Amino acid sequence: MLGIKILIYSSIFLVCSTIGLLKSQKYIYRVNELREFKNALNMFKTKIKFTYEPLPEIFRQISGAIKPNIGSIFKIASYNMNFFSAGDAWNKAIDTDILNINLEDKNVLKNLSKLLGATDLEGQLSQIEMTSNFLDEQIKKAEKEREKNESMYRKLGMIIGLGIVIILI
Questions:
Q1: Distance CA 16, CA 158 (A)
Q2: pLDDT the model gives residue 118
Q3: pTM score above 0.90
Q4: Rounded Cα gap, residues 56 and 36, in angstroms
Q5: Which of left, alpha, beta for 85 (phi over 0: left; psi -120 to 50: alpha)?
Q6: What does 114-167 look like in DSSP terms, one character per residue?
Q7: Alpha-carbon distance 112 to 38, whole Å?
Q8: Would you tell me how many other CB atoms lie within 10 Å of the CB of residue 161?
Q9: pLDDT tens across the length of the chain (169 residues)
C-alpha cells in the first residue's frame, strides 16, 4: 500500500514538473523562431536581390533551407500565392497556429506583406530590412521574457507538484 502511495505521489510531482517545464519551453521556442525568421528574411533579401526569381519559387527554396516549423510558413505562403496576392498569402501563412510566437510578433511579420510583390525591388528590400529591424526588437523582448519566465515556470511546476503531494499526505 505504501509503495502505491509513493508511486502516485511521485507521478503527481513529475506531471506537475513536466507541465512547468513544457510551459517554460515556449519561451525558448519563441526566441528560436524569431531568430529563424530573421535568418529566413536575410535569405529572402539575398535571393530577391540577386536571383530575380518569382516569389513563390523563392519561398519554396527558403522553406527547404531553414528549420521545419518556420519553413512550413514559407511553404504555405508559396502555396497560397497560387490563389491570393503575395501579401495576403503571407498573412494567411503567418496566421496558422504552428508557431510559438505571440500576437505582437505576428503583427511585426505581417508588416512584410504591405509591399510584398506589390512594389519594385528597392521597395521590397526596404520593407524586408524594416521588418528585420523590428524583429531585432522583438528578439530582445523575447529574450527578456525568457529570462524572466523560464525558470519561474519550471520552479512553479515543481512547487505546485510538491504542494499537491504535501496536501495529499
A1: 6
A2: 65
A3: no
A4: 19
A5: beta
A6: GTTTTS-HHHHHHHHHHHHHHHHHHHHHHHHHHHHHHHHHHHHHHHHHHHHHHH
A7: 12
A8: 22
A9: 888 888 998 999 999 999 999 988 888 998 998 999 899 988 888 888 888 788 888 888 888 888 888 888 888 888 988 888 888 888 888 888 778 888 888 888 888 777 676 667 777 788 888 888 888 898 999 999 898 888 899 899 999 989 998 888 8
Give the separation between CA 25 and CA 37, rounded to whole angstroms: 18
What cell numbers appear for 164 in the block? 499537491
Q: Which region holds residue 56: left if phi is over 0, alpha if psi is between -120 and 50, else beta?
A: alpha
Q: How many residues does the chain have?
A: 169
For residue 56, give every residue at least 6 positions away whose Cβ sits within 8 Å of its Cβ, in sequence order, or none.
78, 79, 81, 82
How far is CA 48 from its chain centroid? 23
Distance CA 164, CA 133 (A): 46
Grid cell listed for 50: 540577386
Residue that has been written with the C-alpha cell 530590412 in this structure = 129
Amino acid symbol at 87: G
